[in-house]
Design a protein that fits this description.
About 25% of the residues lie in helices and about 30% in strands. With about 550 residues, the chain is α+β, with helices and mostly antiparallel strands. It has an 8-stranded mixed sheet with strand order 6-5-14-15-16-13-17-20, sandwiched between helices. A 7-stranded mixed sheet has the order 22-21-25-24-23-26-27.
Amino acid sequence: MTQHFDADVAIVGYGPTGVTAALTLAKHGVSALAFERDADIYPRARAVTVNDWTMRIFQSLGIDDRITKVIEPQRALRWVTYDGAEIMRVEHPPSALGPGPRFYNIYQPVMEAELRACAEECGELIGVRYGVEVTGLEQDATGVTVTAADLATGETRTARVRYVIGADGGGSATRAMIGSRLLGDTIDVQWIVIDCRVKRWWPDRDLLTFWSDRQRPVVDIALSAGNHRWEIPLKPHETEADFATEDAVWPLLDAMGVTTDDVSIHQWAFYRHHTRMADTWRAGRIFLAGDAAHLMPPWAGAGMQTGMRDVHNLGWKLARVLKGELDERWLDTYEAERRPNAGFYTELAVQLGRVIKQEATPAEIEEMNRVPEGTVTPFEPPLIAPPVLDAGWIRGPLGDASIVGRMVPQPITGDTAGRMARLDDLLGDGFVLLGADVDPSALLTPAEKAQWDELGARYVAIRPKTAYTQGPDELVDLDEVLLPWLARYGVRAIAVRPDRFVAAADVSGLATPDLPASAVGAVPAQSLAATPAVERSAR
């Protein structure tokens, strides 16, 4: 008997992580049904930046041109003291992941509205129920029954889906329902976030400035769309009640020389920094993503982006599993790949926080920017370095001298018909093997080629721009980036995943990487009712 499903995947929460999940699934023809408590977009700007990795995800979804119109390039980062001494500076080189800047400033409500507008254009593939709260999840061997209550009427409805993504934030009910514990710490310092409208330009407004001080460190950042933000910690004797009115907030800005000639205060809010991660991100057919899975301080600008990267990773795998193109064991690689990356950015944020609070010594600051001896990869500070995979569906050694796990740079390339475009636009959405002036299929054994053929892989030779193409499925390295990049690591061919990470290279074997021995699979039929989230600290 054929079962009825209201959608392939339910998404609990429809913030940036949830809508990116929906867009990723829809890109591959998979339907999603989102459940969102709030009728409107959260009005406060929480995230402040996106980088070229996130923009490459937007490119894969076909929406990067639209997002670019509502965000603005970011010039550089600097850490300064109140007496004007510069502690550290990070200049932004051009992006290696796609033509354009390395970092952008955003105004989250505006960008989020554009993301939702893009989702609305996906038609029936994306459905959204606003003003509802998911109160129960019941999963069995073939799917999950979602129970949700209308917050206005109290009426409950159910929906049947194959999988669920919990993207419902730090207070995630989904996390509580699957019995996952949020481990870590919350720093007992309250911060005030002051969002302002810009009235005139002032010197170096376009630099993201961290004012370093033990008592009153400040984040000073230009947002897009004519907005600016300051984030300021309250002193031990201060409370929210001390800043209940705009007149009470203004002295904080006055202390930095900001006046009513420069800005008007738009809104302000209070928050605390968390360093927490869920002990498991999956229970059977239910997955956690974004703040539901991890919470980090804001210093690396990676909280929102890490959630979006979570669901992009999970989304392309889920879509292919649902369409029968990949084994269900692929879903076991989601947490294996994303947990280390979330942990990396959490630790990076913690260390950058030590700089702004003047807890890091000069020697530690110097070490953060030290170029390791004998590096094969051109060194860039961790905050701006291109992403890497530390685990998951990859084969071969990791580390500075290995190309495995790295994201392929994205220059302008040409095809045999003379079309010039970004690399990803010419590669398509699937697996691909790239050869350095050689047909990569010629380097495979019959068994290895059969493995890649089963995944629907393409075989593409990258030719130098000084030579003729020799066949129909070739690309020309117009920017002279790809061939030198492959040569730097001493490889002739690489296997590239749909998310553009290198899965394998000829120097360590081009066979497809191994999958986990067995899938987690669906848990026995059970009813999971919403209960208050339990947060426990691992100290």
